[in-house]
Design brief:
Layout (H helix, E strand, L loop, with lengths): L16 H11 L21 H12 L32 E15 L6 E8 L4 E6 L1 H7 L9 E10 L2 E11 L9
Parallel strand pairs: 3-5
Antiparallel strand pairs: 1-2, 1-4, 2-3, 4-5
Length: 180
């Protein structure tokens, strides 16, 4: 049985991409059908920032246009400590605002009561907050979503990092934005 025939580049040629593109551009031109007017697309309405963020969060699971905390009114930030300042406030009682990015529910070893760890972010960085059993019992129903939360408590050193021991927690309302 003879070996299969091998094709060489002279026997079988493949057109180059550039020759194909030039053939396409000269042979197929797009034209407007007769009696048809081409109109530019209708511009979409510009939504207010809060509504745009809410729609993005509904569609994507997060907002692209702004961080949800940017939608809080300036007066919400009065007297608030930021994540970047926590370390300098060890042992002090502070008020903070945060958007939850992670949560962990555990039981205590001793009496098997629930407590919760929150990882939150503000506009300056991330911080940790702990709801020990008594605080968890009072505020657990509020910690289902992402917030935003206003938290009050004492800044403590947990394994070399500042953490907020939560004594009070509330959900802040964002106008036009669905709660996470």
């Amino acid at each position: 049985m003879p070996p299969p025939t091998m094709f060489t580049s002279s026997a079988m040629s493949t057109p180059s991409i550039s020759s194909t593109m030039s053939t396409m551009s000269t042979s197929s031109t797009m034209s407007t059908p007769p009696n048809k007017t081409v109109r530019p697309p209708t511009p979409l309405p510009e939504f207010p920032l809060a509504e745009r963020c809410a729609r993005e969060a509904d569609l994507l699971g997060y907002s692209l246009s702004a961080h949800p905390l940017e939608l809080l009114p300036p007066e919400a930030w009065a007297g608030v400590t930021t994540a970047e300042r926590m370390e300098s406030l060890l042992g002090k009682r502070v008020t903070m605002i945060g958007w939850a990015i992670a949560m962990k529910l555990i039981r205590t070893r001793k009496d098997k009561r629930f407590m919760k760890f929150l990882s939150l972010e503000d506009l300056t960085g991330t911080f940790e907050a702990t709801l020990f059993p008594a605080a968890y019992q009072r505020f657990a129903h509020l910690t289902i979503g992402a917030g935003p939360y206003r938290l009050r408590g004492r800044v403590e050193n947990e394994q070399g990092l500042p953490s907020l021991n939560v004594e009070f927690l509330e959900i802040l309302k964002l106008s036009g934005f669905a709660e996470g």
